[in-house]
Amino acid sequence: MKFNGKEFIIKELITNENGKNSGSGFAGLLIVIIGLLGFIAGVVAYFLGLPFAQDLIGSIIAMLGIGGGLLGVRKVWGNTPKEEEDLSA
User: Fold this and answer.
1) 3-class DSSP state for residue 21?
2) pTM for this entry
3) How confident is the model at residue 1, as a pLDDT?
């Protein structure tokens, strides 16, 4: 499966299959964006020789894992079949 950058839409990361916004998707995307910015800051701190840089990078990697998990968990739970209600009665 090839990645087509022209068809990629950020909104698809934070919406459910029915088109509503997903709380876990939005939180995951926000955590990942903040984590990437923190990772860049940690790498700069590491190259500057600051003593807390390794601890910062370790914490940011854990934060990125949590954000990625929040983005992925809704895909796992969203694939479970749901029983439809019979409204004809």
Assistant:
1) strand
2) 0.68
3) 53
